[in-house]
Specification:
About 65% of the residues lie in helices and about 0% in strands. It contains six helices and no strands. The longest helix is centred in the middle third of the chain and has 23 residues, at about 50-75.
Length: about 130
């Protein structure tokens, strides 16, 4: 596959539009605390040579983080210390001896667990 075909295959990802919308929502909320997390997953995408699998991971972490942000904020009238919540979640090791939150599944488990432990999740969310 040449580079033009490769770019076209990436641009046809079924959740790319949702991820773009989520990035715009996060940006409009001035929610910069997640930039480091997104950068980690973007770097994984870049290092992979922009593989479809790593694009899927990047998109999935954007969707999960946005779902977490919306769900967390829906239970509060203020930011309610969400920056500290992210620091706590992203420092948690889900997999023994693993670097914290470098896999999408770890990010989703940590975010879901945080919401459930604090009664902020009526049910498991689709993107989480």
């Amino acid at each position: 596959m040449d580079s033009a075909e490769h770019v076209m295959s990436l641009s046809r990802h079924p959740y790319l539009d949702k991820a773009n919308f989520c990035i715009k929502a996060i940006k409009s909320a001035n929610h910069r605390i997640v930039c480091g997390l997104f950068l980690d997953f973007y770097n994984q995408l870049k290092v992979s040579g922009f593989s479809y699998e790593k694009l899927s991971d990047f998109i999935e972490v954007i969707l999960a983080t946005t779902a977490f942000f919306v769900r967390y904020r829906s239970y509060s009238s203020s930011t309610d210390g969400i920056d500290n919540v992210y620091r706590l979640i992203l420092s948690e090791k889900v997999t023994k001896n693993a670097v914290p939150c470098r896999k999408v599944s770890d990010v989703k488990i940590s975010m879901r667990r945080y919401l459930q432990d604090r009664g902020r999740s009526d049910k498991v969310l689709g993107y989480m």
